[in-house]
């Protein structure tokens, strides 16, 4: 009957791509930090983004993330959560609700109560990776351990603390 209007499909793809990049970048020795938020925005010309969405995402990345992770903002989380709670109202809304539930399984409350993209969690493993990134996880873990050790040896407390938090995330996800 044509295409269904399922906005959560885009959210699912965004989370999947973001978590995959976060892991693959770590595995290649290039840590990624980011923020995801929902707000108004516009594209004045192709690639020229403006608005509150960009500012909120930047604030999450620069002020909240604090170490290599992707933090999800409160409006984004509320949107996904409310979408998962919608009562059935036809095929499109049922599918949207189901995908929202899947999206929630790809998020986690971190040690500091911030909601993050949980690329090491069971939701990602089941929905995105399906056992295909075990070597990347191992390389990423080794990079995190080595980075923390290197920063501790040169008494760089700021960066060693960041990698200690990241290492705690890896260990909590095993």
Low-confidence stretches: none
Total DSSP E strands: 6
Rounded Rg: 17 Å
Overall structural class, as computed from helix and strand content, comes to: alpha+beta
Question: What's the total helix number?
Answer: 7
Major sheet description: 4 strands, mixed
Shape: globular
Q: Report the end-to-end length measured between terminal Cα atoms.
A: 44 Å
Look at the structure and give the mean pLDDT: 93
Strand order of the largest sheet: 1-4-6-5
Q: What is the helix content?
A: 55-70%
Order of helices and strands: HEEEHEHHEEHHH
- Strand-residue fraction? 5-15%
Task: Set down the secondary structure blueprint.
Blueprint: H1 8-27, E1 34-36, E2 42-45, E3 48-50, H2 52-65, E4 70-72, H3 74-84, H4 91-104, E5 107-109, E6 115-117, H5 122-129, H6 134-153, H7 157-172
Parallel strand pairs: 1-4
Antiparallel strand pairs: 2-3, 4-6, 5-6
Helix pairs in contact: 1-4, 1-6, 3-4, 6-7
């Amino acid at each position: 009957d044509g295409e269904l209007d399922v906005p959560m499909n885009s959210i699912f793809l965004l989370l999947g791509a973001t978590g995959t990049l976060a892991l693959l970048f770590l595995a290649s020795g290039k840590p990624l930090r980011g923020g995801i938020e929902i707000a108004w925005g516009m594209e004045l010309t192709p690639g020229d983004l403006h608005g509150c969405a960009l500012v909120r995402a930047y604030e999450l990345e620069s002020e909240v993330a604090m170490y290599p992770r992707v933090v999800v903002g409160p409006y984004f989380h509320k949107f996904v959560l409310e979408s998962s709670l919608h009562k059935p109202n036809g095929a499109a809304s049922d599918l949207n609700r189901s995908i929202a539930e899947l999206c929630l399984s790809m998020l986690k409350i971190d040690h500091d109560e911030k909601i993050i993209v949980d690329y090491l969690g069971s939701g990602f493993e089941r929905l995105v990776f399906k056992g295909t990134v075990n070597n990347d996880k191992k390389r990423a873990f080794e990079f995190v351990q080595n980075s923390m050790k290197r920063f501790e040896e040169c008494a760089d407390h700021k960066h060693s603390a960041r990698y200690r938090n990241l290492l705690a995330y890896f260990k909590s996800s095993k």
